[in-house]
Amino acid sequence: MACISGVDKFRIQSEGTELTARPSTINVCTATKILDRLHREFTEKYIAKPSSPSTPIPLGKTVISDVHQSNPTFYLRNQPKLPSFFAESNDGQEINRFNSMLTADPPKTQDDQVYLTTVHGIMNGRYNASVDVKSFNTPPNPQNNLNDPDSFKGLYGLMNLNNVIETHIDKVINGMTGSEKTAQEFSDISNKYKVRREIQTTLDAIASRENEIYREKFLNLFLIIVGIFLIGTQLVNKYFSFGSIGTGSGGSLSGNLFTGFGLGSSSGIFSRFGGLGLGSSGRSRVTGMFSNNPYSLSTR
């Protein structure tokens, strides 16, 4: 029923402050109560009827019964079986009635009375064991006010309540502004705020992406530096490995200073380019310069 000013209490949010209905907030109070009821009718979980009449009912629980056949939750979630609903077996188990109809082999359709009754109950919030196809396909007349709260039932009732609330919001805005022109100005301000919010969201997204790009560039630069360092270290170890100075056949200068710049027969920093070693083979370009040169003193 509709709220009474000074008597009924309501909350805009579930955890918000409890308010007392006033002449200016009666419709808000009534709308919240309708929404609370619809929420319960769409989501409430029932329990099976106790086998013994003396068994106490748990606090906050509701025993399933014929009266709940009008609520969408009776069909949409797992609920205890009810023998009075199309002769369901009384085995104490639960059933998801709508899902069972869709997964049956073959699935239930409008040709089945149980399907018509089920979908009619979900959409209209009313139980009709003999609803026909014409009534099944005909939605109820939409409400245009909150004078009859109990008429908002099922999915149709939820949609109609949303439409009525939107109408009341428009009335409140027009009443606050005092003129259609002022109302338009308020609407323009709201639209401008929405645009600014979208611009801010876009800028935030761009800034976030730029930060990602900068981080990626820094990481790449860091990896390049690390790579240069590792390669440089290998080159130093290869060509600048300082150890002992040797001159033997396999000796080295400072542990083969510039590895391949030794004085051995097979050494030489430029050995890969023809050899610059001073080995005993006499084939390097330095030794060959004097031993095989046609302008040497021995052949002059």
Describe this structure in words.
There is one protein chain. With 300 residues, this protein is mostly helical. The chain has four domains: 1-43 and 144-177, no CATH class; 50-138, no CATH class; 179-234; 240-300, no CATH class. It is built from eight helices and six strands; from the N terminus they run ββαββαββαααααα. The protein has helices at residues 26-43, 73-76, 97-103, 113-124, 133-136, 154-177, 180-239, 285-291, and strands spanning 9-10, 19-20, 46-47, 62-63, 79-80, 94-95. The strands form three sheets. It has a two-stranded antiparallel sheet. A two-stranded parallel ribbon has the order 3-4. Strands 5-6 form a two-stranded antiparallel ribbon. A hairpin with an 8-residue loop joins β1 and β2 (19-20). α1 packs antiparallel against α6.
Secondary structure layout:
Elements: E1 9-10, E2 19-20, H1 26-43, E3 46-47, E4 62-63, H2 73-76, E5 79-80, E6 94-95, H3 97-103, H4 113-124, H5 133-136, H6 154-177, H7 180-239, H8 285-291
In a nutshell, what does this entry contain?
45% of the residues lie in helices and 4% in strands. By secondary structure, the chain is mostly helical. Strands 1-2 form a two-stranded antiparallel ribbon.
- What percentage of residues falls in helices of 4 or more residues? 40-55%
How large a portion of the residues is in β-strands, by DSSP E? under 5%
Overall pLDDT confidence: 79
What are the segments in which pLDDT stays under 50 over at least 5 consecutive residues?
243-300
- Biggest pleated sheet: 2 strands, antiparallel
* Widest sheet, order of strands: 1-2
Report the total helices: 8
- Radius of gyration equals 45 Å
- What kind of oligomer do you see? single chain
Distance from N terminus to C terminus (CA atoms, Å) equals 131 Å
* Topology as a string of helices (H) and strands (E): EEHEEHEEHHHHHH
Q: Any idea how many domains?
A: 4
